[in-house]
Amino acid sequence: MSRRTNTVRQLELLCAFMEQHKDLALGRVRSKEARPLAKRLWDECSNILNPEGPARSGKEWAKVWNDMKCRIKQKIIASNSSLHGTGGGPSTIVPLTPLEEQVAAIIGADVGPLPGVRIDVGCVRLILI
Question: Whole-prediction pTM value?
Fold first, then answer.
């Protein structure tokens, strides 16, 4: 099976679609009653993205989005751990690309080891949400 690579344009359009449909982006439309809505939205998303590059079904685009969210969350958590770790040496913070920053803004700022707690790095303080 060959691997299909998404175009940058497709990923930009996917982020724009998710900004408009935050409940879908955050996985809040999973109930039995909401599944038809989620399927309709993913099919609509597929119709928007497919002319820009490799074609995928709505279900495949949902997997692309979830994989992208997971990868970015892991990157943010690794950077936060490196920033707050002890042991000396240079930190291994990997900066986010503009597209990754956009996804992080969509999924929220409280991505980290403590759910519901955001770390304000500028002042090094915890803010309970």
Answer: 0.77
